[in-house]
Design brief:
single chain; globular; about 45% helix; seven-stranded parallel β-sheet; about 1800 residues; 49 strands; alpha/beta
């Protein structure tokens, strides 16, 4: 019976719906319901469930072959959504289903029953059984029906399967979790461990294994190996393991270490190979499997013959590898076998059983029963069977009671009775510190016998005890199972009470625990009992309120009563008399924090009075309709007019609506009002269509008409098709469009499917042709990459990894073969991929107007549909805000708007420039959100340098606010746990921490596990996609990178799994603290967030691994988002949210808008980049003259829509917008001519960039790894050369014209100019920073200032000298006071957290940083509010000098940054004049490209254009060469096809002649059958038997030495025999083949020329051969037809011309013209040049050209009236000496 996917899916859905109903009704299943549940078969092989099915639109992503399953999969999703309580729970079930698709193949019931029967028939007694991968419980059911009193434990990881299993087998223990979570107590426990275990390269996270030997660690890498090793661990000695597993366990040579370990620790009972068709009926898949039965024997010391075979593998002549156990076919259950390939395409021996499942079961039972009778060691099995009857426990078993009843025993030897001292190993000295205070009389007690000590002994008790010398023996106390309520807070080391017994938990399991009773006296028992009652009451209250978010006064009364009782009897928890004994409880730190010190007195924490996990306070009264609106939104999440009216005095509903006119609109879809910022926001096109549809049915609804008008007015202007840019492979474009394009391009039926879950395309065709195999194909050394392969690359915008083999010399000088990138083939592939990608746009342009309009409409509805709310916060009043204390009349309007955004959105991005008052925004927003109940416990995170200012601002703004601001000394390891508990147990208006302090807060392990698991799933999906690529199409580098990333994630998950499983400490994690909003100041510090991408060759993407700092923030934000079930949950504040590249936007969205990204279908970085980014590829020549490919996301498209998505959650304000009173920036590009040494070195740099000869630079040759980073090294050397030649080598000299000299002169000029006002200056450089006692540029400039310009040394300082916060503050104060006049520093140390602007008049940039944000941060040190000297004495301007050495990279780099910053600003304020942005081609990680580098260093801008032209020409020439090469291949195929057609035509003619001759000669019998009158030489008879026997003799004995030998005739045709040599399994043997020759010389054969052994059949061989002639004719005619169809395509390729030939010709002509121009320039280069001044760089967004990106040169050309670049006049040394002091050499001024 074939596997019916639809039937299995239907049965699964019915079972799932039923199980949810049963669970909801909290009842057992009925018999009929159990039958329905039993039909559930998992989702193994049902890959269709991986496809999206949330709406009908998703059907476009489905393969046609699976469309009939779409309704069922949609029903499955709906069933899960309806029956789950949250999106998170729904996703858990979906992920569980996805994970089971590749592994859930259930064993047929007859097979499992056969295994159980074999055990029963062999009289094997069983008490305890474990099934570690239970599935639907086939194994446990089979055993439970045969062994009625057996204890059965099932582990099943799949959520749905486990839920169903628990109802099918209600008497068994079912644990819905992975086998790796089994408790340690089950080691050496079970009699039988049996299952059909999962298999594959799936890593298991078992912390216990990671702590043991290498074999155990390695076993976790493959799930099947792990199950074997873990299964043996859980078996008791002599127990039996019976697993059905994949053949790889036994057949894989690399698995030999595991097999060796198994044979060292077990006896082999049975190894049986099962047929490949075993799972066909249940799962629709053919897969090889084995049954392996092992008996645990830890004392084993030798191996049997069968066990040695178990270890070994054999390789057959066919290349198939098989375990030696199966050399004998009787170990394989089968009826037939043959060599073939496995599902992965590898050679394999296939075995089939024709008897179906029942036949397989019968044969299996016979073999297994025999193996059990021969190989099972019954003595070993039964010996340990009786010892294994107790319940699982790691505690020791009590010994038998002593029979010596009358013996007197002293108490001190009746161990293991324990006191608290003994339990925790207190020394005598430690015991004495906790004893009660000694009495004055100290009587000797030396004669007193030993007795149990007491912490609470009274005087009377002591007297009584002093009289005791002996007492009756006490029965020893042993560990026992804890039968009390096992709540989450009870951990290892927790004190517990059971009845009247106090004890301590010594073993903690999933659902049980072992405790050690303590022998305590009355006083001890009472105190600990009171403490336990208090502790349990606290956890009960907190957990209830944190879970339900409802105040529980009853539990709170219980807590207060418990505390008051304890405090009244024993004093405060933190009293010295209590703290010692309470700290013996593992959770005591949290309980001790229930008291906090206020002004030296202990008082109750807030939790005693009110909830601290949420805000219980509701607004009872509102002053205005606006406040009532906010209160309503907070409480109900919507506008509740009835509630709002109860808050207001004497206002009717109509009056409230009128007050809020323009702020609220009626939404007919929900029949309620919505706030404007919610209603006129988001996808307004969709909303307008829905409202319009409503009004068609309700035309008289006036409120809805007003709402529709508002929506329609807000719709963004539609983008016309002509304005749109399209990337081939954008996921939003319907798949049928891609299919139609590909089908037309390839002239074949092409299927393209998209799988959103793994962000992957699947491209197939039912018929390949020459367009696919030739025109769009690339032949590599070992594989043909067809058009189908390249189509997939084109869709994913990736490049195939094509390699070739080359000979290289190894370290020993010997030749060896290595694989290297085949650059020529890669370039050819890229050109064809580009043709496919670019052709898509051309194809779209050729479509009908309606088609294009429909596509544009679809785009507008998907992306150009968002409206950013206008946040107007002007109406707000801020109760309790102390404006007078802050010294301001009011907040900025921009601050009010941003605060209003926080209140309405619950978070967002405050993108305000430096000085915009972000600190006050945070403080007021936090307080307001707390006051209004929007947030209960907001947390503010700031830089270490700023956090004190934040705390001080908060205290000043709200003097009575309750703020937690721990200092550095409060956050030591010993103190921070208490801080965490104070955060948890109190209700704070704000908690203020540094970024570093926040990093110390433990994040919820469950949340970390969830995020890492999602990231790991993404990585594994990408790995699966890459590994599934045909041949070597996947980049090894990418595979290796993903593998490393996968392993790192697995290690993290392993640690987290262990942490969750064995959580014993009492440290509060972030989730339990109750933080519900984060304010992250300087949020750009967290931009390095982890992400997954296939674009492994693309520069500038950053590190996909991310940083731990960023991950911690992600964990925290996801914890908040999970709690609220919506986006945001945090506010990011920064003036540089985008510090360098627009790719950073994706990471911002990943933090704050995960749900919105999901709605757009963006579930990965690659999906996002496919919409908004264009990848550019540059080709350059390497040192070895190879073409090197460089990729980067240089262009960004659809930028306005990207800006909309950003601005929707962002409040962006420049300093000008805010109206900040701060100085203007006056930029001066100060050009410096190169020194003679620099001129020489520049030439060397150009030679190095061209040749790669590092010795030119005075250093060792480049290593292999450095070869790949040649241009980065060249860029780095150019930067150092520009700053100072001594950065390259100390052998270079100082020079009067170097950068240090010019900078010192300019600094001195400003020093003197503003001397009377003590004007200060900042000097920045990230190269050559200050280091004491060694030469560096900082110290060199200072030396020149002191020695050449007579500036006092103490007025010139370096920020690096300040080693402490105190010293740093003193240095900043010195700058503001004017005692320090010049301060040097790097961007990281001086660029943030330095408010030393009061006297700043100039900023000097010795080098240019990499990122625009760094330049902005530097300039912000002086250009900020509070700069008094610039305002009063410098025309309110600060000079910013950028020092640029000519022919260096300085100017280019600066202009690149300016260009990039301009675009970033325009994107933020949504004022782009262009839909495309060019980010440039230079970055920190890769340097710049070769051609531009050489051109810039040459100092001639025309040479830069020449370099660009030459690069384009070289790339086109290389592409043309590849084109010609591919064309020559087509020429050969064309000529070969012509010859083949001609040859086939001749063959057809000759065969037709033979067939005609045969038909004229053949004779028929009376029944019309052809007669067979064979005439063999030497035989006169035509008797078939005689002829057949003779032919068989010839077959055995003839030897013709490879020649054709005539042996007879048939109808005039010659009969021939030929002897050939063949090789079989390494041996040469003779093979005779027989032919019949036609008149045209064609030799025909039948059965490949071999004679049948049956004489009659043998005699028919030749006539059968002649009768095959018509089929042969048909075959050759078909071949001719097929080849003839291909001829026009080949002719088209032959006649084709290089399409880019006109472009190449034009570029060459441009190069000739440019060469003449350069020559002319060189002739006149000594002419005088004018020195020009530049006032400042002016941003003009309107000058940006629409529709195209602008280069730096174009920007400068477009602003010639604003941007002028000059250089220093050439002044000789003599002329310089003649300059008077008044004519100081000034260089270039702006």
């Amino acid at each position: 019976m074939s596997y019916n996917k639809k039937a299995h899916l239907r049965a699964n859905i019915d079972a799932i719906k039923l199980i949810f109903d049963i669970d909801r009704e909290k009842r057992l299943s009925t018999e009929s319901e159990r039958n329905t549940l039993l039909k559930y078969s998992g989702f193994g092989g049902l890959k269709a469930v991986l496809n999206p099915a949330n709406s009908l639109a998703d059907i476009g992503n489905w393969a046609k072959s699976e469309l009939d399953l779409f309704p069922l999969v949609a029903e499955l999703h709906e069933a899960l959504r309806v029956n789950t309580n949250s999106e998170q729970e729904y996703k858990q079930y979906i992920n569980s289903i996805k994970n089971s698709v590749l592994s859930a193949f259930y064993t047929p019931t007859p097979i499992v029953q056969t295994i159980a029967d074999a055990f029963l028939d062999s009289n094997i007694a069983v008490n305890k059984i474990l099934d570690p991968s239970a599935g639907m419980g086939e194994f446990s059911s089979a055993y439970s029906s045969r062994y009625l009193n057996t204890q059965i434990t099932n582990y099943e990881k799949d959520l749905l399967t486990g839920k169903i299993l628990s109802h099918i087998n209600p008497n068994d223990k079912v644990i819905i979790d992975g086998f790796e979570t089994i408790d340690r107590r089950y080691n050496n426990h079970f009699d039988i461990v049996t299952s059909n275990i999962p298999f594959g390269e799936v890593r298991v996270f078992d912390a216990e294994f990671m702590k043991t030997d290498k074999l155990h660690r390695d076993a976790t890498r493959y799930i099947h190996n792990y199950f074997f090793v873990k299964g043996i661990d859980t078996l008791r000695e002599g127990g039996v393991l019976a697993f059905i597993t994949s053949q790889g366990v036994l057949d894989s040579p690399t698995n030999q270490p595991i097999r060796k370990w198994l044979m060292d620790n077990t006896n082999l009972v049975s190894a049986i190979r099962l047929p490949n068709n075993l799972f066909v009926e249940n799962a629709g898949t053919e897969v090889g499997s084995d049954l392996i039965v092992l008996q645990k024997n830890s004392q084993k010391n030798s191996l049997t013959k069968q066990e040695r075979d178990f270890l070994a593998t054999d390789t057959l002549s066919s290349g198939i590898i098989i375990n030696s156990s199966f050399q004998r076919m009787n170990r394989i259950v089968h009826t037939k076998g043959y060599p073939d390939t496995d599902p992965y395409g590898k050679p394999a021996q296939i075995f089939i059983h024709d008897g179906g499942t029942d036949g397989i079961a019968n044969d299996l039972k016979a073999m297994l029963v025999q193996d059990l009778s021969i190989n099972l060691n019954r003595e070993l099995y039964n010996k340990h069977l009786l010892q294994n009857t107790s319940s699982p426990s790691s505690g020791s078993t009590p010994p038998p009671k002593s029979e010596e009843k009358n013996e007197t025993i002293e108490l001190n030897v009746s161990q293991p009775t324990m006191s608290l001292y003994d339990l925790f190993g207190f020394t005598e000295e430690e015991r004495s510190q906790i004893k009660p205070q000694r009495r004055k009389s100290n009587k000797a007690t030396t004669t007193k016998p030993p007795a149990q000590l007491s912490l609470f002994s009274t005087e009377n008790q002591n007297k009584t005890e002093s009289k005791k010398t002996v007492e009756s023996p006490k029965e020893p106390i042993f560990p026992k199972e804890f039968e009390g309520e096992l709540t989450e807070h009870i951990k290892l080391g927790s004190l517990v009470k059971e009845g009247q017994q106090i004890g301590v938990i010594t073993e903690r399991y999933r659902d049980s625990a072992i405790y050690k009773p303590l022998d305590l006296h009355f006083g001890e028992k009472n105190k600990i009992s009171a403490y336990i009652n208090l502790r349990d009451s606290y956890h009960k209250l907190y957990n209830d309120e944190a879970t339900n978010l409802i105040e529980n006064p009853f539990f709170r009364n219980e807590l207060n009563l418990a505390y008051d009782t304890f405090q009244k009897r024993y004093g405060n928890l933190n009293d010295k008399s209590n703290i010692g004994i309470l700290k013996m409880d593992a959770g005591s730190t949290e309980i001790l924090s229930l008291e906090r010190s206020v002004e030296g007195k202990l008082q109750k924490a807030d939790i005693f009075q009110k909830p601290v996990a949420f805000n219980p306070n509701e607004i009872k009264h509102a002053e205005t309709s606006h406040e009532a609106l906010v209160a309503s939104l907070n409480k109900y999440g919507e506008i509740n007019l009835g509630y709002m009216i109860t808050l207001l005095d004497n206002k009717a509903q109509e009056e409230v609506i009128k007050d809020l006119e323009g702020q609220i609109y009626f939404n007919p879809l929900i029949q309620n009002y919505e706030i404007r910022d919610k209603f006129i926001a988001g996808n307004v096109i969709e909303k307008a269509a829905q409202v319009e549809d409503y009004l068609n049915k309700h035309p008289a609804d006036i409120r809805s008409q007003v709402s529709l008008k508002a929506l329609q007015d807000s719709i963004p202007q539609p983008i016309r098709y002509e304005e749109l840019d399209f990337n081939f492979g954008e996921r939003w474009i319907p798949m049928p469009i891609y299919r139609d394009y590909a089908s037309q391009l390839f002239e074949s039926n092409i299927k393209i499917d998209y799988y959103a879950s793994r962000d992957d395309f699947h491209v197939t065709t039912d018929r390949e042709n020459l367009i696919i195999r030739e025109k769009f194909a690339v032949q590599s050394e070992s594989q043909l990459f067809t058009g189908i392969h390249l189509m997939k690359n084109a869709l994913l915008n990736t490049t195939p990894n094509i390699t070739k083999t080359v000979q290289v010399l190894d370290e020993n000088g010997e030749q060896k073969k290595v694989k290297v990138a085949d650059s020529e083939a890669i370039q050819l592939a890229n050109s064809k991929i580009d043709e496919i990608r670019n052709g898509f746009t051309d194809w779209l342009n050729d479509q009908s107007t309606d088609f294009k309009n429909d596509l544009a409409d679809l785009y507008n509805k998907k992306f150009n549909c968002y409206v950013r709310p206008e946040y107007d916060g002007s109406h707000q009043t801020f109760p309790d805000l102390n404006l007078k204390g802050l010294g301001i009349p009011d907040l900025y309007p921009s601050q009010k708007d941003c605060i209003w955004m926080q209140k309405l959105m619950g978070g967002g991005i405050a993108d305000h420039e430096v000085g915009g008052g972000k600190t006050l925004i945070m403080c007021v927003s936090a307080y307001e959100m707390k006051r209004l109940g929007i947030a209960n416990k907001p947390m503010i995170l700031g830089l270490k340098a700023n956090v004190h200012e934040i705390a001080q601002t908060f205290k000043t703004a709200y003097p009575n606010a309750k703020i937690l601001y721990p200092g550095k000394e409060d956050f030591t390891p010993s103190k921070r746990v208490r801080i965490f508990n104070e955060i948890k147990n109190n209700s704070w208006d704000a908690i203020i921490l540094t970024h570093d302090q926040f990093g110390k807060i433990p994040q919820s392990p469950e949340m970390q596990q969830k995020i890492f698991r999602a990231e790991l799933d993404s990585v594994e999906e990408n790995l699966r996609v890459l590994e599934s690529m045909t041949g070597k199409a996947a980049s090894k580098r990418m595979l290796r990178g993903l593998e490393v990333r996968k392993q790192n994630l697995e290690v993290k998950l392993s640690v987290l799994s262990d942490q969750i499983k064995n959580r014993t400490d009492d440290v509060v994690d972030f989730k339990r603290m109750g933080i519900d909003h984060l304010f992250v100041d300087e949020s750009h510090q967290f931009k390095n967030l982890t992400f997954t991408t296939r674009h492994d060759r693309v520069a500038g993407l950053g590190n996909p691994e991310g940083s731990q700092r960023a991950l911690n923030i992600l964990f925290a934000i996801r914890t908040i988002q999970e709690r609220t079930d919506k986006d945001l949950g945090a506010t990011f504040l920064s003036g540089t949210t985008i510090s360098n590249s627009l790719t950073e936007l994706y990471l911002l969205f990943k933090y704050l808008r995960p749900k919105e990204l999901e709605k757009q279908g963006v579930n990965s970085f690659d999906a996002w980049a496919a919409i908004y980014a264009k990848k550019t590829t540059d080709y350059e020549f390497s040192v070895t003259n190879q073409i090197v490919q460089k990729e980067r996301f240089r262009y960004f498209i659809k930028v306005p829509e990207l800006a909309n998505f950003y601005s929707e959650i962002t409040d962006f304000r420049t300093a000008k917008d805010i109206g900040i009173d701060r100085p203007e920036k006056k930029e001066i590009l100060y050009n410096i001519p190169p020194t003679p040494q620099q001129e020489i070195f520049i030439n060397k740099l150009m030679q190095f960039a061209q040749t790669g000869d590092a010795t030119l630079l005075g250093r060792a040759p480049l290593s292999d790894s450095e070869e790949k980073a040649k241009m980065l090294i060249a860029t780095d050397y150019a930067r150092k050369m520009s700053l100072d030649m001594r950065m390259i080598s100390p052998h270079y000299d100082d020079h009067i014209d170097n950068k240090a000299s010019h900078c010192a002169a300019k600094i001195a000029e400003y020093y003197n100019k503003y001397g009377a006002n003590k004007g200060t200056q900042f000097v920045f450089s990230d190269l050559g920073t200050y280091k004491p006692n060694e030469w560096n540029p900082y110290s060199e400039v200072k030396r020149k200032l002191v020695e050449d310009h007579n500036i006092p040394a103490h007025e010139v300082r370096f920020i690096q000298e300040a080693k402490t916060d105190k010293a740093r503050k003193a240095m900043i104060d010195g700058m503001n006071d004017g005692r320090i006049r010049i301060l040097f520093g790097s961007t990281s140390m001086l660029g943030t957290g330095v408010n030393a602007q009061q006297r700043a008049v100039a900023i000097h940039h010795l080098d240019t940083p990499w990122r625009p944000s760094d330049l902005q941060q530097r300039d912000g040190r002086a250009i900020r509010k509070g700069n008094e000297i610039a305002k009063l004495y410098a025309d309110n301007k600060v000079d910013v000098l950028i020092y640029a050495v000519e022919k260096s990279l300085d100017s280019y780099k600066f202009n690149l940054l300016q260009n990039k910053q301009t675009f970033i600003n325009q994107l933020k304020n949504n004022s782009l004049g262009s839909r495309t942005i060019d980010e440039g081609s230079m970055d920190e990680s890769a340097g710049m490209n070769f051609s531009e580098y050489v051109a810039i260093l040459s100092g001639n801008t025309d040479l830069l254009e020449k370099a660009k032209l030459e690069k384009k020409i070289n790339a086109l020439e290389s592409e043309k060469k590849a084109f010609v090469k591919s064309k020559s291949s087509a020429t050969f195929k064309y000529e070969d096809s012509i010859k083949t057609i001609e040859g086939n035509t001749q063959l057809i003619s000759r065969m037709q002649k033979d067939w005609d001759s045969f038909n004229t000669r053949v004779k028929l019998d009376t029944d019309g059958n052809k007669l067979n009158p064979v005439q063999l030489d030497g035989i006169n008879s035509s008797d078939p038997k005689i002829v057949g026997e003779k032919l068989n003799q010839l077959s055995d004995n003839a030897r013709t030495n490879g020649e054709y030998f005539k042996i007879g005739e048939l109808y005039g045709f010659k009969l021939l025999v030929k002897t050939e040599e063949s090789l079989k399994e390494g041996s040469i043997f003779k093979d005779n083949r027989f032919f019949i020759e036609g008149e045209g010389g064609i030799k025909y054969n039948y059965n490949n020329g071999h004679i049948a052994t049956d004489p009659k059949l043998a005699s028919m061989n030749f006539i059968n051969a002649l009768e095959r002639i018509p089929k042969l004719i048909d075959k050759y005619q078909y071949d001719n037809e097929r080849l003839s169809k291909d001829l026009p395509i080949l002719k088209e390729v032959l006649d084709s011309v290089f399409k880019k030939e006109p472009e190449l010709k034009d570029l060459k002509e441009q190069l000739i013209v440019l060469d003449r121009q350069i020559l002319q320039t060189l002739r006149t280069k000594d002419g005088p040049k004018e020195v020009v001044q530049i006032e400042k760089f002016v941003d003009n967004s309107n000058s940006v050209r629409s529709g195209e990106p602008m280069s730096i040169k174009e920007i400068i050309d477009a602003n010639k009236d604003r941007i002028l670049v000059g250089r220093v006049d050439s002044v000789s040394q003599v002329e310089k000496k003649e300059l008077s002091k008044d004519d100081t050499y000034r260089g270039m001024r702006i």
